[in-house]
Design goal:
495 residues; alpha+beta; binds flavin-adenine dinucleotide
Length: 495
């Protein structure tokens, strides 16, 4: 059976070697602080097994014809991109924040395009190698992290100009059976509970940087890999259980301390001219995924705002409705950008459908620039209790329980527990370690807004809009005609 269960996934984690470090200590993969993130990944296995979600959480493999988890799928059509977007929005509603498996899926889609381009340009055999590796992913329902963001050192310098050559991951030796790599990737989500880590270049490389133009995959517990991890989790609940209390996330600095990678797991090694395509394509696939998850975050923040307004008895107030409309407008515009990006997708030479970069980047940037504004709206409506809610134990103690409940009463149509649950949710999403993580993830995850600006300006041929102005000004006589597809660069050519 190709679709694996969460229990099979957890069994795999149990068999991995110990290489996760938290706060100075080496810990097991099922450490309590990691379990909350593992729960989120488990949801992606459960939803694929659930007939109600089969149409979005599963797909048919284009290489084996088998039913697979969509997180292991390579997009074969515009429809696939739309379903991926829907899957992500739906999944985040159940787990809040980050489903964890998009990064691996997006890295594999980027590799499916670029390994083919490498073969076309250099006559290499990367694509066949990639397809073999993909088969292993699909057959085992693999959970993968994508490690793109390097330590990067001095931001004004290119990789080979850094004072320490290891500040970007690079090849230090080429051998008959593989390569040795060294360096570190930072801010990488889910490595401690990933089967595999897919490593991609973080930027376009020049010829001087060709040892940094490297892409490969290693098991999460490969020799020489150290996962220095920061888990983000919520305060434990004792009585008032709720789905949100079972979610969490972990990010790692991944240190590659002279790691050996066999050739069959190497997908770029020195082909610096295509490192730009690979870096930008992962970012593009990932920003398209963001047009699914960020609307879900807006749905959750907006839904919580509506809930607290109901508790406060002010749901119909004009300013409340206006605030709620902002969440709706934002969520649906970002989602619409993803839909447009899928509709204008182009088929790459390998057959993978690549979303339109301008729509995906514009959508992701809109979301990133507004995340703090959305929190502003929620907290405005929630009031101070979002930060000062008494700890859970006080609601259940003999001495204070009834009194605390009594003073939680607000709108008489809802119970004290309803109000307590609402504020506990808002505390979790707006005033906790996870809340801070979500805000920063909302701004920088998948690329800071400035990177989307750069991507938009690099891709968009502004001659089209200038021609319109020239026509209206009487500088040009011909009627301008803007075709969106003529204005953007998809990074799927070898020139
Ligand atoms: C929660 C979270 C999860 C993440 N998960 C992943 C993941 O799974 N995989 C992954 O690969 N990455 C991941 N990232 C990393 C993310 O992609 C980066 O944070 C993002 O690309 C920004 O890079 P940086 O953090 O190094 O910031 P920097 O690049 O240091 O940017 C900081 C500021 O410096 C500016 N700046 C940078 N370079 C220059 C320059 N040369 N000239 C002028 N200004 C400059 C930027 O514009 C920005 O304003 C994650 C990040 C977060 C926050």
């Amino acid at each position: 059976m190709v679709l694996k269960t969460k229990d099979e996934y957890i069994e795999r984690l149990k068999k991995m070697k110990k290489n996760v470090y938290i706060d100075g200590k080496k810990v097991g993969r099922l450490d309590e602080r990691l379990m909350l993130g593992i729960n989120v990944i488990c949801t992606t296995f459960d939803l694929a097994q659930n007939p109600e979600f089969e149409d979005i959480f599963t797909a048919t493999s284009h290489i084996t014809g088998e039913k697979i988890n969509r997180f292991c799928h390579i997009h074969q059509s515009k429809e696939d991109l739309l379903k991926k977007q829907e899957m992500v929005r739906q999944g985040v509603h159940y787990t809040y924040g980050c489903l964890g498996r998009c990064m691996g899926m997006d890295a594999m889609n980027a590799l499916s395009v670029v390994t083919k381009l490498e073969d076309m340009k250099y006559g290499t055999g990367y694509y066949g190698r990639f397809i073999k590796y993909l088969k292993y992913w699909q057959e085992n329902d693999i959970v993968g992290a994508c490690a793109q963001t390097d330590a990067k050192g001095d931001r004004s310098k290119r990789p080979h100009d850094q004072a320490d050559p290891d500040l970007y991951v690079h090849v230090v030796e080429r051998k008959g059976d593989g390569i040795i790599v060294r360096g570190a990737k930072q801010s990488i989500t889910i490595p401690p509970y990933s089967d595999e880590i897919v490593v991609l270049p973080t930027r376009a490389m020049r010829e001087d940087d060709k040892d940094y133009a490297v892409a490969f995959a290693v098991p999460g517990d490969a020799d020489g890999v150290k996962l220095v991890t920061r888990p983000a989790f919520l305060r434990k609940r004792q009585k008032l259980d709720a789905p949100i209390a079972h979610t969490g996330v972990s990010d790692s600095m991944i240190i590659f301390d002279n790691v050996f990678v066999p050739w069959e797991r190497v997908f770029m090694c020195g082909e610096w001219e295509l490192s730009r395509n690979l870096a930008l394509l992962f970012a593009l696939f990932h920003r398209h995924s963001y047009t699914g998850c960020k609307p879900a975050v807006s749905d959750i923040l907006g839904g919580s705002s509506a809930l607290v307004a109901e508790c406060n008895g002010i749901e119909r107030a004009t300013h409340v409705r206006e605030k709620l409309s902002k969440f709706i407008g934002l969520a649906e515009l970002v989602y619409a950008a993803g839909v447009a990006s899928a509709q204008f997708a182009k088929k790459s030479p390998s057959g993978t459908y690549v979303p339109d970069p301008v729509y995906a980047n514009a959508g992701r940037r809109l979301a990133g620039e507004n995340i703090y504004h959305e929190y502003d709206l929620l907290i405005d409506l929630a009031g101070g209790l979002a930060a000062t809610l008494p700890p859970e134990g006080d609601f259940y103690s003999e001495e204070t329980g009834n009194l605390v409940d009594k003073y939680m009463a607000r709108n008489p149509k809802v119970s004290s527990e309803y109000v307590h649950r609402t504020f506990r949710l808002i505390e979790n999403i707006a005033c906790s370690g996870i809340a801070g993580w979500l805000q920063i993830a909302g701004m920088h995850g998948g690329g800071s807004p400035v990177m989307e600006t750069i991507a938009i300006m690099t891709d968009y041929d502004i001659r089209g809009m200038k021609d319109v102005a020239k026509y209206l000004a009487g500088i040009n006589k011909e009627l301008p005609r803007i075709r969106h597809e003529d204005l953007v660069d998809y990074y799927i050519d070898i020139d």
